[in-house]
UniProtKB/TrEMBL annotation:
CDD domains: STKc_PknB_like (cd14014). GO terms for molecular function: ATP binding; protein serine/threonine kinase activity. InterPro entries: Kinase-like_dom_sf, Prot_kinase_dom, Protein_kinase_ATP_BS, Ser/Thr_kinase_AS. ATP binds at residue 50. Pfam families: Pkinase. This is non-specific serine/threonine protein kinase. It comes from Nocardioides marinisabuli. Residues 21-281 form the Protein kinase domain. Transmembrane segments: none annotated. PROSITE patterns: PROTEIN_KINASE_ATP, PROTEIN_KINASE_DOM, PROTEIN_KINASE_ST. Its EC number is 2.7.11.1.
Amino acid sequence: MTAHSSPETPATTSLVVGGRYELVELIGSGAMGSVYAAQDLVDERLVALKRLHAQRADDDTARTRFEAEARTLRQLSHPGLPQVYDVGEEDDGVAVQPYLAMRLVTGDTLSDLVTERGPLPPLEVAGLVAQLASALSAVHAAGVVHRDIKPANIVVGETGQPVLVDFGIATGDDVEPLTSTGEVLGTMEYISPEQVSGRRATAASDVYSLGVVAYQCLTGVKPFQRESPVASALAHLNDPAPDLPPSVDRRLGEVVQRMLAKEPEARPLAADVARLLERVLARRRRR
């Protein structure tokens, strides 16, 4: 996993995890676990260490999701995806907590960038989305669906490379479903129409969510955000995406609108999104 920002909050303990990872800084914490910057005492490098919360260690669903995320990430290799170095468990006498040691990349989430800067320049958005689509193509080629593409799960590193993080609710060929039929997982402002309808998420669902992200980056607003989650869900199902500003390159706008098609089969593959946006960038560079 990557750091969502430069570490600022100190770890509450100097615990060494797995006999080799000395916790240095708390990067972030969520419902399932926490992520630390940690010093790898064996390979002498900083890593991101993700641990399941002790209070969730006996939660079979939480543990299964954590282990599924580890399996998912270990089979993937792409500059836009987290690189897993090590997987293990730590028994601290209170609970047996699984952990992941991953490549540490400092940077800001795309959510923070849009909040701070407002709409991003169209060519910058085209470059970011092309790289993210390329990463998604690798994910989908491995038979995995992310299911929660959103700006908060995208970290833009110091080189400008976006990294897609948080595969905690991903599904794949070797990952058993962890929800009942019809249950919706994901973030409502970015979820696909088919997920709203209770259908299984597919690679096309990730493409739709990335299209929502692209629209937000270009305009500074979420195209289907409404006054309530239910209203947002209905908007995904029924409302067309608002027009993009005239300043957005026509070809870029066409790609984004295709990504936001209501029917999954009408959307381009992630690999095609990357290819089409690279063409947009190449044309603009020649001008």
